[in-house]
Design brief:
Oligomer: single chain
Low-confidence stretches: 1-20, 23-31
CATH class of the largest domain: Mainly Beta
CATH topology of the largest domain: Lipocalin
Number of domains: 2
Radius of gyration: 29 Å
Mean pLDDT: 85
Amino acid sequence: MRLRSMWATLLILIFVVAFSPSARSAAAQSSTIAKPPAGMAPVSALNPLDAIAWMKGGTWVAEMKDKDGKVTTRVETRIRGSENGHLMKFTTVFVENNHPHLQYEGVYMYNPQSKQIEFYYTDSEGNYTRGHAAFADATRTLTQDFDIVHTNGQADTLRSLVVRDGDDAYNWNVMSNKSGEWKEIFHLHYARERSAE
């Protein structure tokens, strides 16, 4: 009985405190404090990946040719956004003799600690690439500095330039640093093919 009486007293005390004039006044004050000043609208944070969002959609296609100009490999890169908007996923397929082969699979993302767009991917042989990218509006150029870590643990440091050529094409190259100077070792021209949706 004493226990039941204690609980009843405790409930009455909570009710009195919760609905007393001073409690209602404090609640009214706290709700006023929580309101933003008049005319102030919340500002959505900018997504740094917006700088390279132009790469999303369609299929970016390039052709590798032999010395006689015959196409030996068709390269198809597809870049898609993630559901949460903070990743860009990509795959690169090599098509040789009408046989597709998934060569690269990876992501672009923004690292808030380094304040850089970073990218990571692996290839079909298990080599791992990590790097960072920066897009310059003035030159419409995406500069990508990266390391390819081979399966034997050794790494190569390379640079790639992606230079926009209109809305649906770009020139891409890969460079290595020889004696302190970046020199091109490979280049391709990509054009976007859009599916008929």
